[in-house]
Design brief:
Elements: H1 15-24, E1 46-48, E2 51-53, E3 57-59, H2 75-86, E4 91-99, E5 111-112, H3 118-136, E6 143-149, H4 172-177, H5 189-208, E7 213-216, H6 223-228, H7 241-244, H8 246-258, E8 263-271, E9 276-278, E10 291-293, H9 319-331, E11 335-340, H10 347-350, H11 367-383, E12 389-392, H12 402-411, E13 417-420, H13 422-426, H14 430-435, H15 450-456, H16 468-471, H17 474-489
The protein binds flavin mononucleotide.
Flavin mononucleotide (FMN) binds at residues 60-63, 96-97, 147, 219-220, 267, 339, 351, 393-397, 420-423, 451-452, 461.
């Protein structure tokens, strides 16, 4: 699809125009069509882990690639967490991905939770809580969790451009893309057991320093997610359903015994597709073509993904994700954050955007279709009624119409919480503004993807177009230079 054919949300004048554009794309989206939507459902408090969340906004984990080499937060990290608190959102999901061991870091600036870094994380949690109280004028607090991670295939703990993958299973397309020999050995079952121990240790620290819950991450192509689709993995953690979910079950058990009383949550990629690439026939120098699925006939039946139809792997199959929700309920996991795909191999699925990141491709579909896909999957998984509260993802692309869709989504029971990712980087005050019937259009994220392009080039993430702190930084100049040299060298 050429970007000319896409709906340009910033130039729509009214909710009615948005409704017509969505209908023209054949989309069924919940929508409060009033210019001033009824936000009462968004403002409804709800109990999570025995604590009251003041409203139905959730701040997704948003990593900044700005920790110290030994895994501690910097002032930039603290600033981001303060802004998460200032949002006034009732639920803060993780702050960001925090590695449970050095080798599991996705980049050398990712935070690591160890005994000696725990006080630093406690300090930024306290700053977040204080910022929440200042912004809301209350003495309450949001419900806050920490996302615990191991980046698996995407580990780069030592240098941003030096992969040190720990694969859960071989993947013919991704192994080839990463230059891994096809006989590269997946990590052993013993390695997985030691990761569970490290995660349980980190969870106990998170509990001690004041987090309400931990997210046992299973999303975005990282370790836990890759394991869910590891049909070819031999041993105790691959192959059948029982084995592929053993990691989750053992994690839950280990965290329960290391941190009794700590809330448990899981963010998982509930749907996926094959890896995508820019269409070489429609790419020009400096301008990647629209994304197309990489050739994958040789991989069908597709036994390398989760939430995909094995016979037609560009289609979704929710039968296992539904079972996964049921399992989360049986395990007493209190909340599930529903996401999809991976930023590494199909970013348009994971975070619908008008402009691609530097390692991406032009949109293969109208990004609104991607938003609707997320919302329908979330609605279907919430309808399972398995028990966990549900957080929806990919609302940022809705831009000016986010309040209208979000209000209706919660009111009509499509989701319990509306998650905000990229939007919180440009416009941290959005939740409180929406609840008070305001919107600052100048702060709305327009999905330029610089927050992804910067870290892909070894720079900290942030909203370079709209947040003055990044816009005026020396890194902004470096980012512009790297983008321009990438354009001319293509
Ligand atoms: C800069 C950046 C950092 C992110 N960091 C994380 C992270 O640490 N953990 C995670 O689960 N997702 C992470 N995500 C994904 C977001 O949480 C979210 O799923 C995604 O941006 C889609 O939501 P949105 O449309 O509201 O932006 C990140 C995304 C971006 C753009």
């Amino acid at each position: 699809m050429s970007s000319e054919g896409l709906v340009r949300l910033p130039i729509l004048h009214s909710v009615a125009e948005f409704a017509s554009a969505a209908a023209a794309l054949g989309l069924d989206l919940p929508l409060d069509a009033a210019d001033a939507p009824d936000v009462s459902a968004l403002a409804e408090p709800i109990f999570v882990y025995g604590r009251q969340a003041a409203n139905r906004f959730c701040i997704h984990p948003m990593e900044g690639w700005d920790g110290t080499p030994d895994g501690r937060p910097t002032e930039l990290t603290a600033r981001r967490w303060e802004r998460f608190g200032r949002s006034g959102a009732g639920l803060i999901w993780g702050g960001e991905a925090v590695a449970v061991r050095h080798g599991g870091r996705a980049n050398p600036h990712q935070l690591v939770l160890r005994t000696d870094t725990a006080p630093d994380l406690e300090a930024i949690l306290q700053r977040l809580l204080k910022a929440y109280q200042e912004a809301t004028g209350s003495d309450g607090r949001p419900v806050v969790g920490l996302q615990l991670t191991h980046s698996g295939r995407y580990c780069r703990p030592s240098a941003w451009d030096r992969p040190e993958p720990c694969i859960a299973a071989n993947h013919p397309i991704l192994d080839a893309r990463m230059g891994l020999p096809s006989d590269t050995a997946p990590v052993s079952d013993g390695w997985i057991r030691s990761l569970i121990e490290d995660t349980a240790r980190a969870a106990a620290l998170a509990h001690r320093i004041g987090f309400d819950f931990v997210d046992l991450k299973h999303c975005h192509g990282y370790f836990g997610h890759e394991l869910l689709g590891a049909l070819h993995r031999p041993g105790g953690y691959g192959g059948c359903w029982e084995n592929r979910t053993r990691y989750l079950r053992e994690l839950v058990q280990a965290v329960r015994s290391s941190a009794p009383g700590l809330g448990l949550a899981v963010r998982f990629s509930a749907f996926d597709t094959v890896p995508f690439m820019p269409d070489p026939y429609r790419s020009e120098p400096g301008k990647p073509g629209p994304g197309i699925p990489v050739p994958h006939c040789h991989c069908v039946p597709y036994e390398y993904g989760f939430g995909v139809d094995r016979d037609a792997p560009t289609d979704i199959d929710l039968s296992e994700p539904v079972r996964f929700m049921e399992l989360l309920g049986q395990l007493g996991v209190g909340a599930a954050n529903i996401t999809g795909g991976s930023p590494y191999y199909n970013p348009h699925i994971q975070r619908p955007a008008l402009y691609p990141p530097s390692d991406g491709y032009a949109p293969p579909e109208d990004p609104l279709i991607g938003v609707a896909r997320h919302m329908h999957v979330t609605r279907a998984l919430k309808a399972v009624g398995a028990g966990p509260l549900v957080v929806g993802t990919a609302y940022t692309y809705l831009q000016d119409f986010l309040p209208n869709v979000a209000a209706a989504a919660v009111a009509q029971g499509w989701t319990d919480f509306v998650g905000l990712g990229r939007m919180v980087l440009s416009y941290p005050g959005m939740p409180l503004d929406v609840l008070e019937g305001r919107l600052d259009r100048k702060r709305i994220c327009r999905t330029f993807s610089d927050c992804t392009t910067a870290p892909r080039n070894g720079l900290p993430s942030g909203c370079y177009p709209l947040d003055e702190n990044y816009k005026r930084s020396p890194e902004a100049r470096l980012l512009a230079e790297r983008k321009s040299s990438a354009r001319s060298s293509r």
